[in-house]
Backbone:
C-alpha cells in the first residue's frame, strides 16, 4: 500500500506536468493561427489584385496567381506553364509577393 506522502507527491508531479504542457501548447497554437491568417491575407490579395505569388513547397518554388481558394485545405493557382495547379495549404513552407 502506498504511503500518503508518496500519493501526494505523485499527484503534485502529475499536476505540474499537465500545467506545463498546457502552457507550452498555447503559444504554438497562437503562432500557427497567426501564420494561417498571414497566408490567407496574401492569398486573398493575389486573388483580388491578380498579383503573382511564389509558393515555397518542400524545397521547390511554384510561381503563379491565385485563381480561387478551395475551403481551408487548398488553393488553385495558374501560371504561364500550367493552367491549373492545386496546392495544399498545409504543404506550404513560405509565401512571397512582389
Residues:
Amino acid at each position: 500500500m502506498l504511503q500518503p506522502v508518496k500519493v501526494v507527491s505523485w499527484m503534485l508531479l502529475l499536476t505540474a506536468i499537465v500545467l506545463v504542457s498546457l502552457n507550452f501548447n498555447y503559444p504554438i497554437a497562437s503562432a500557427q493561427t497567426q501564420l494561417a491568417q498571414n497566408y490567407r491575407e496574401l492569398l486573398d490579395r493575389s486573388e483580388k489584385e491578380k498579383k503573382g505569388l511564389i509558393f515555397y513547397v518542400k524545397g521547390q518554388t511554384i510561381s503563379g496567381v491565385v485563381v480561387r481558394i478551395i475551403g481551408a485545405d487548398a488553393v488553385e493557382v495558374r501560371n504561364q506553364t500550367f493552367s491549373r495547379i492545386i496546392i495544399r495549404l498545409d504543404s506550404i513552407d513560405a509565401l512571397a509577393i512582389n
